[in-house]
């Protein structure tokens, strides 16, 4: 084997090693990009859910106020009926 053939073989081996090293890095980069996109989507979904929770909490407070008002009116109506029946 000549020196050129030996150098060519070493160069070929080095290229193969480089290819083996780069492939996992490229896959890791692709996974990282995919993961980053998924994380961004999950953050958007979380923000939407938090907004919906805030809306539902506000609606719950409003309904609690309405419920209290209805309860007070019913108590008043019951008291008036009892008064009218007691006469």
What does this structure look like?
By secondary structure, this protein is an all-alpha fold. Helix content is 97%, strand content 0%. It starts with a helix and ends with a helix. The model has no long low-confidence stretch (mean pLDDT 93).
Q: How much strand?
A: under 5%
Q: End-to-end span in angstroms? A: 125 Å
The average pLDDT value, as a whole number, equals 93
Structural class assignment? mainly alpha
* Shape verdict: rod-shaped
Give the strand tally: 0
Along the chain, the helix and strand elements come as H
Briefly summarize what is shown:
The chain has 87 residues and is mostly helical. The protein contains one helix and no strands.
Question: Which helices and strands, and how do they pair?
Answer:
Blueprint (H helix, E strand, L loop, with lengths): L2 H84 L1
Describe this protein with a few key phrases.
mainly alpha; 0% strand; rod-shaped; single chain; 87 residues
């Amino acid at each position: 084997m000549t020196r050129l053939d030996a150098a060519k073989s070493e160069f070929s081996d080095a290229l193969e090693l480089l290819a083996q090293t780069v492939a996992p890095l490229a896959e890791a980069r692709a996974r990282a990009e995919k993961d980053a996109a998924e994380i961004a989507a999950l953050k958007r979904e979380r923000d939407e859910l938090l907004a919906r929770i805030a809306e539902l909490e506000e609606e719950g407070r409003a309904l609690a106020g309405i419920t209290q008002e209805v309860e007070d009116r019913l108590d008043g109506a019951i008291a008036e009926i009892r008064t009218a029946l007691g006469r």
